[in-house]
Specification:
Number of strands: 14
Number of helices: 12
CATH topology of the largest domain: Rossmann fold
Shape: elongated
Strand content: 15-25%
Structural class: alpha/beta
CATH architecture of the largest domain: 3-Layer(aba) Sandwich
Distance between the termini: 62 Å
CATH class of the largest domain: Alpha Beta
Largest sheet: 6 strands, parallel
Order of helices and strands: HHHEEEHEHEHEEHHEHEEHEHEHEE
Helix content: 25-40%
Number of domains: 3
Length: 339
């Protein structure tokens, strides 16, 4: 194997990936042939000042790709020079929030070396989305779309419907306007919130009223969430209110405040401190989507959250296994001291 300039210390590319890329390049150039033996893990580790873990990780990924094969007691050999074509995937998100980053990281980690992923952000703007899609139609094996918009036009649906359904994956929601048998990993916003609140009914019953503080820019998703919230309050006869976050200026004793935006959660805490109200006793706080900070803030903020890691990994698994399914993503209630 040609090892000249194999590992670059200051490269942004991880060292294990540099080793993978070099081995694949040597196969493509004919420098490595079927049946050739690779240097051992120890040899590569010592010669290029790599940890054994780094070399093992590279060899494991090459083995997963079917490029090399370990022979017990002898070492690693080139098992195929017919390199699999990498899948090309276009990923279009509405924004790159902390939660979207979790989905993205899980997605690309599950795909591993089997795919190249290009990501674009449409910022809830249908024109930007349409331009991205028009420019890239026919260039990718899969189109993975998170279609959160303030306004979805017929033109946008028509454009999405031009994507072959075997190449389309919709994340986070189902769209009735998209026809045919496509793949989706979705949240059922109406039933998810109803079921999650139901899991915390014993804590919520300590309070007189539930107040849902909602942003005004979440489109149809908002209607489904409102419907699930109202259904829950009706089932358990809770006094309740749905409030625009712009109108949210105070908190009152005996009420639970449910927030989707972290800025609204921060406002709740500030208002409680101003009135010297104890969170978890005088008022309750419940937030959407878990973060490490919410585990420790105010001794722990209770959350209702979809499993973003699972959303990304499941979408990748369905692509790799070439399965077309519509799968409801996991959603749960996590109880902490704020209720």
């Amino acid at each position: 194997m040609n090892t000249e300039n194999l590992i670059q210390e200051n490269s942004r590319i991880p060292k294990y990936q540099q080793l993978i890329d070099k081995i694949i390049a040597d196969i493509q150039e004919g420098k490595l042939k079927y049946g050739d033996k690779l240097p051992s893990i120890n040899e590569n580790s010592e010669e290029f000042y790599l940890s054994r873990d780094t070399v093992e990780r590279a060899y494991k990924k090459l083995q997963d790709l079917g490029v090399i094969l370990p022979v017990r007691g002898k070492g690693y050999y080139i098992s195929s020079v017919e390199l699999p074509e990498k899948l090309k995937i276009l990923l279009i998100f509405n924004k790159l929030s902390n939660y979207k980053k979790i989905v993205y990281q899980s997605f690309i980690e599950t795909l591993g070396e089997k795919a190249t992923v290009h990501i674009h952000i449409h910022h809830y703007d249908t024109k930007i989305f349409n331009d991205i899609l028009l420019e890239n139609l026919g260039k990718y094996h899969y189109y993975v779309i998170m279609p959160h918009f303030t306004d979805l036009s017929n033109e946008t649906f028509e454009l999405i419907n031009t994507i072959p359904k075997e190449r389309l994956v919709i994340l986070d929601k189902n769209l009735d306007e998209i026809h045919g048998d496509y793949t989706s990993v979705y949240q059922d916003f109406q039933n998810d919130i109803y079921e999650a609140l139901n899991q915390g009914i014993d804590l919520l019953k300590k309070y007189n009223r539930l107040v849902f503080v909602l942003p005004d820019d979440i489109g149809k998703k908002r209607l489904n969430i409102q419907s699930g919230f109202k259904k829950f309050c009706g089932a358990y006869q809770f006094k309740h209110e749905i409030m625009e976050n712009e109108a949210f200026i105070e908190v009152k004793k005996g009420e639970v405040y449910i927030s989707m935006e972290e800025s609204d959660l921060v406002s709740c805490i500030k208002f409680a401190r101003e009135k010297k109200l104890t969170i978890g006793k005088d008022i309750g706080l419940l937030s959407f989507n878990d973060t490490p900070l919410k585990e420790v803030l105010e001794n722990g903020i209770s959350v209702i959250s979809t499993n973003f890691v699972r959303m990304g990994s499941l979408a990748a698994e369905l692509i790799l296994e070439k399965r077309r399914l519509k799968v409801r993503n996991e959603f749960s209630f996590i109880r902490r001291e704020s209720l």
